[in-house]
């Protein structure tokens, strides 16, 4: 799983029928502190996330393991909205 | 599959049910000439290997499910052979 | 599977139903000599094995899903062993 910030939504009418009724979110990958990285992902929303949310993304074949995304041809899903990330140990 | 050398043994009491009774090793991927390459992996023994052995590691998703006859097998890396001898000619 | 040390906790109240009651940790992959390798990642703990600071073995990709009893959860990495000692 990776951290990401939702930066937008994607609207599409012509798409695979398995994607009907699913919200597509444009996400930018960030590190644990929220600092943006260079990668963008389009992910299906499984937790009613909104623009600006700090979320957890699951990718690859695991992304199809939710009721919303079963059988859908997708490879990224928003699985959680993050409240807080606590770093308890530092490796130096 | 990749060539590796068993360097240490992992001892643990608290583990997933699929790992009960199995021996788990730390393996270091190596080149055919014995030089280390990349980072260490953790692998479950399937052939009775021991520390110091050169081995073949591998397994595709779902393979461990079959060979251990488990319904759920979160086992990614298996030790599937102990190497006796490698005949090879390296190319530049 | 790889060795790692739990260095942080991820708190999320709204998450996919299958992950309710499952804690998420930030794990730093380490070598057997306890040196950090690669960058930290988020790992789910389906069996409640780990706590902050523990050394663990985690599994990634498709097999991480198998660590859950349901075998149907959107995770990329799961804790499967709490390491007592590496000899």
Helix content of chain C: under 10%
Tell me the Rg of chain A in angstroms: 14 Å
Q: What is the approximate shape of chain A?
A: elongated
Helix % of chain A is under 10%
**Contiguous helical run count of chain A:** 0
**How does the major sheet of chain A shape up?**
5 strands, mixed, barrel
Q: At the third CATH level, what is the topology name of chain A?
A: OB fold (Dihydrolipoamide Acetyltransferase, E2P)
CATH top level class name of chain C: Mainly Beta
Topology at a glance:
The complex is a heterotrimer of chains A (92), B (92) and C (87).
Chain A: E1 2-10, E2 24-30, E3 36-45, E4 54-59, E5 76-81, E6 84-87
Parallel strand pairs in A: 3-5
Antiparallel strand pairs in A: 1-2, 1-4, 2-3, 4-5
Chain B: E1 2-11, E2 24-29, E3 41-45, E4 54-58, H1 63-67, E5 78-82
Parallel strand pairs in B: 3-5
Antiparallel strand pairs in B: 1-2, 1-4, 2-3, 4-5
Chain C: E1 2-11, E2 14-15, E3 23-29, E4 41-45, E5 55-60, H1 62-65, E6 77-82, E7 85-86
Antiparallel strand pairs in C: 1-3, 1-5, 3-4, 5-6
Structure report:
The complex is a heterotrimer of chains A (92), B (92) and C (87). By secondary structure, chain A is an all-beta fold. Chain A has no helices and 6 strands. Chain A has one domain: Beta Barrel (OB fold (Dihydrolipoamide Acetyltransferase, E2P)). Chain A has a 5-stranded mixed barrel. Chain A is elongated, with a radius of gyration of 14 Å. Chain B has 1 helix and 5 strands. The model of chain B has no long low-confidence stretch (mean pLDDT 91). The longest helix of chain B has 5 residues. Chain B has one domain: EutN/Ccml (OB fold (Dihydrolipoamide Acetyltransferase, E2P)), CATH 2.40.50. By secondary structure, chain B is mainly beta. Chain C is mostly beta strands and 87 residues long. Chain C has a single domain, classed as EutN/Ccml (OB fold (Dihydrolipoamide Acetyltransferase, E2P)). Helix content of chain C is 5%, strand content 44%. Chain C contains 1 helix and 7 strands, in the order βββββαββ. A 5-stranded antiparallel sheet of chain C has the order 4-3-1-5-6. Chain C starts with a strand and ends with a strand. Chains A and C meet through β4, β5 and β6 of A and β1, β2, β3, β4 and α1 of C. β1 of chain B pairs antiparallel with β7 of chain C.
């Amino acid at each position: 799983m990776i951290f990401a910030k939702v930066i937008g939504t994607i609207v599409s009418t012509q798409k695979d029928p398995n994607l009907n009724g699913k919200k597509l979110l444009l996400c930018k990958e960030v590190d644990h502190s929220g600092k943006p990285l260079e990668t963008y992902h389009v992910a299906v929303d499984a937790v009613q996330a909104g623009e600006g949310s700090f979320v957890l993304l699951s990718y690859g074949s695991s992304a199809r393991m939710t009721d919303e995304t079963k059988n859908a041809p997708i490879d990224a899903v928003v699985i959680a909205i993050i409240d807080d990330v606590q770093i308890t140990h530092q490796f130096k | 599959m990749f060539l590796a050398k068993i360097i240490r043994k992992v001892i643990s009491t608290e583990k997933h049910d699929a790992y009960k009774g199995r021996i788990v090793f730390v393996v270091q991927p190596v080149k055919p000439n014995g030089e280390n390459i990349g980072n260490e992996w953790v692998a479950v023994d399937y052939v009775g290997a021991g520390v110091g052995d050169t081995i073949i590691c591998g397994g595709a998703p779902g393979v461990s499910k079959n060979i251990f006859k488990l319904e759920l097998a979160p086992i990614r890396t298996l030790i599937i052979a102990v190497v006796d001898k490698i005949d090879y000619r390296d190319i530049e | 599977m790889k060795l790692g040390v739990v260095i942080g906790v991820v708190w999320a109240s709204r998450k996919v139903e299958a992950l309710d009651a499952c804690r998420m940790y930030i794990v730093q992959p380490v070598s057997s000599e306890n040196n950090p390798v690669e960058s930290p990642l988020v790992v789910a703990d389906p069996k409640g094995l780990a706590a902050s600071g523990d050394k663990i073995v985690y599994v990634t990709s498709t097999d991480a899903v198998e660590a859950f009893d349901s075998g149907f959860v959107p995770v990329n990495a799961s804790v499967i062993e709490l390491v007592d000692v590496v000899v």
